[in-house]
Amino acid sequence: MARSTESQTSSSVLMIRPVRFQSNPQTAQSNRFQQQDHSSSDDGIHETALAEFENFVATLEAVGIDVVVFDDTPEPHTPDSIFPNNWLSMHADGTAVLYPMMASNRRPERRADILGSLSSDHGFRIEQTVDLSSFEADEKYLEGTGSMVLDRANHIAYACLSARTDADLLGEFARRMDYELVVFDATGEDGAAIYHTNVMLCIGVDFAVICSASIKEEQRRAVLDKLRSTGHEAVDISHAQMARFAGNMLELKSANGGRILAMSSQALNSLTAEQRKTLSSRAHIVAASIDSIEKSSGGSVRCMLAEIHLPRKPGSQDSE
Which of 183, 228, 298, 317 is most buried (most C-beta within 10 Å)? Predict the structure, then answer.
């Protein structure tokens, strides 16, 4: 397929309002960032997470981000529905990609009604849907822009291999979407594979926040060199900062074209003064407190945002 021109950043994002948020026991083994919260009831965890969600939506809207919110469905119970970027990515050529997910209770998060509403109610144009979910039958998984961090402008997908990120499926995505792959191994300080690339790497327009120490030593230089070759200044974070979700950021674009860098308050507070200075010179930093979501689910701000890069239908507001 012909390679499409695509902006790195989007001014529209999809978010899912949780209906029964809680820590997911099916994801705990592969996600070392996830902690079961025994200090609160499930109802208490949900209410706190819902308040954090609403505050985050308001924070984004206040800086000119178009937030398209859908409600989760009560049944079947999908405790991680707040993280739509794992089942869906949307692209400037009008392609929507659906992904295979490891946890069986996450698979119902894929909802055709959401894609239909983006088209019928919100003015986005979906030209084709690439559905990779059938690979779940072969126990092969690729969890969207959690598994892959996309340099959209240069059509490069960065990915660290894990139980949730299959090498063969990376190749399938690259073939279907005409992407180059940069594949590597990355681990936490405990030596366990990092479950999703987007907790150790964020790629903006002209910078990359990366925990390079997590990358296998013999692969590290190649990853950093690739980022630099495409004009990205590396902002290196430590394992400790990664554990506080400093790698789980996302650059967006406000309605007036301004650059916005979204992160959690925990992530912001973990940054050094020099790191903050570098990032704030590139984009306006916005942070929201989502401590309960981070603790219970092992995901942060970037995971909550599925960027809408789809083209707009004629007569609707421009998406780019």
Answer: 298
Tally of domains within the chain: 1
Which domain, by its residues, includes 149?
A: 12-307
CB contact at 8 A, 288 and 264:
yes
Q: For residue 74, what are the contacts with CB-CB under 8 A and spacing of at least 6? A: 19, 20
Secondary structure in 3-state letters for 246-303 = CCCCEEEECCCCCEEEEEEHHHHHHCCHHHHHHHHCCCEEEEECCHHHHHHHCCCCHH
pLDDT reported for residue 320? 42
Q: Which residue, among 110, 95, 196, 212, has the nearest Cα to 149 in the 3D structure?
A: 196
- Residue identified by tokens 């939506």 is 57
5 occurs within a structural domain: no
Please state the pTM of the whole predicted model. 0.92
Is 2 among the domain residues? Answer: no
CATH number at residue 103: 3.75.10.10
Do residues 220 and 25 touch, judged by C-beta distance below 8 A? no
Check residue 79 and give its pLDDT: 85
- For the chain, the farthest-separated pair of C-alpha atoms sits apart, in whole angstroms, at 53
Provide the CA 104 distance to its chain's centre, in angstroms.
20
